[in-house]
Amino acid sequence: MGSKNKLKRFRENETFDNVLQPTREEAVSGSFPLKGKWNSDFFKNDNPIVLELGCGKGEYSVGLAERYPNKNFIGIDIKGARFWRGAKTAVEAGMRNVGFLRTQIELINHFFAEGEVSEIWITFPDPQIKYKRTKHRMTNSAFLQLYKKILKPDGLMHLKTDSEFMHGYTLGLLHGEGHNVLYANHNVYRNEGAPEVVTSIQTFYEKQYLELGKPITYIQFKIK
Q: Which of 15, 71, 91, 185 has the fewest beta carbons closer than 10 A?
């Protein structure tokens, strides 16, 4: 994507009422106005809030929002030029139950209050295979504790990935730490029993992975 194109998307994002792009200072200083008030002030309903972390182009957030009109969805990514696509689709379709937040994942507890979130989806994260990159792995212990703070006590976690390494790493960690693994499948399109929502929404990259014959894996769990 050319820099001209990126700038155009950044400018367009600023006109969308479903996109929020707070500064890091706003997050860390505690002045973000929607923390604890997403239902009342942004979505203007009491429906459950679901996050997609590292939402990329936002296809999953939009796809989920279409299927579940009685839930609210927020796609989160640091790359605004990417989720521009999902935000624009939602605006054009007049969807009121999906929004996008531009921030780093490690700052999410500055944007959501304790127990404000019902579910979290992590879709196709960078597996960060090298050992020194483990601190960036989105299902490591530190991240799980971060998610736990903002999730309701019975909150659901979903991990969908094309990385067998990430799938195995996460499953091992969950079992090792005693978290509650509700469902795990290392090839959702080949093995029966995966929740319909896992196979019915496909991202741009997922379609490419499938064409290459890469298995798509999925884990549903609760953080103890």
A: 15
